[in-house]
Structures are given as C-alpha cells and as structure tokens.
Amino acid sequence: MAQYYANIEGNHGAATRMGTKSSGMSGHIRGWNVGCRVWMSHNDTTDQDECTVCVTSGSNGHGGHINLGTFTAADLDKPAPTPIDHKAIAEIVRRAKGDAFGIEVPAVMKCVAVNMADYFTQDNPQFDRGRFLEACGL
Fold it and tell me: 83-104, pLDDT tens digit by residue?
C-alpha cells in the first residue's frame, strides 16, 4: 500500500508515482538556475511522515542548495514566521547611532547592531553580517 503519492504535470501531460514507508519519495522540479527538491520519508523514531524541502541551483548545478527545513503535519498548525526586514532595522540603528535624541549612544548602538547581526546569522547562515553592519553605519 502506498504511504506517499505524487503527481506532476508538464508538456507531456500528467504522471503519478507512489512510495512506501521504506522507499520514501523524492522529486526535483527545476529550471536552469533554480529548483526545488522535496523528500518524503517516514521517521520510525517519531512514527511521523516528514517532508524536507530544499532550494537548489537547478539543472545548472552551480551554487549548491539551501535547506528550507524538515516539516511534519504538526507544522501546519504553527503560524508562519514573520519576515524580517533587515534593511529597515539597519536604517533604524544607523539613525539612532548619532545625536538624533540629543544624546550620544554610538557604543550602545554598536553593541545592539552586533548582537542583532549575530542573531540574524544564527537564524540564517546565508545572512550577510558584514553588509548589515555596514548598512548600520558601523
């Protein structure tokens, strides 16, 4: 019996495939420079199906991939993460760094900016820490 079921459509019509708990299932839909790979598998430890999603560099194959995460049915009940506007945050830090409020706080703002950059880097390894700090005026 199939644990997983997939369908795909293209210029040659539709195709379907099935997978079991032991075989799992994967697919890679891609253009030349960008693509998306999805794996479905069963985690025997948690007894749950897991879906792993990756953005790839497509058929071109240059540039690696970004793992977006592994998800289960429980993730459907969680709220979507709020996007972070790094440019707006950097602008706020840059403006507050000077004498905008009648006090000099550059050392404090540098500490805040560096800690924020560390947090963003931990949250997203692709985050450009140096560019953020430069945008903050540091």
Answer: 778 787 877 777 766 555 555 5
Q: Which long-range contacts (CB under 8 A, 24 or more apart) does 128-137 make?
A: 132/86, 132/90, 135/86, 135/87, 135/90, 135/91, 135/94, 136/90, 136/93, 136/94, 136/97, 136/109, 137/93, 137/94, 137/97
CA distance 95 to 136: 8
pLDDT of residue 79: 75
The pLDDT assigned to 86 comes to 77
Give the predicted TM-score (pTM) of the model.
0.60
Write down the pLDDT at residue 99: 55
Q: Is the dihedral of CA 124, 39, 32, 63 positive or negative?
A: positive
Residue with tokens 């007894």, as numbered in its chain: 47
Region class of 52: left (phi > 0), else alpha (psi between -120 and 50), else beta = beta
Give the span between the Cα atoms of 108 and 116, in whole angstroms. 12
Assess contact for 23 and 40: CB atoms under 8 A: no
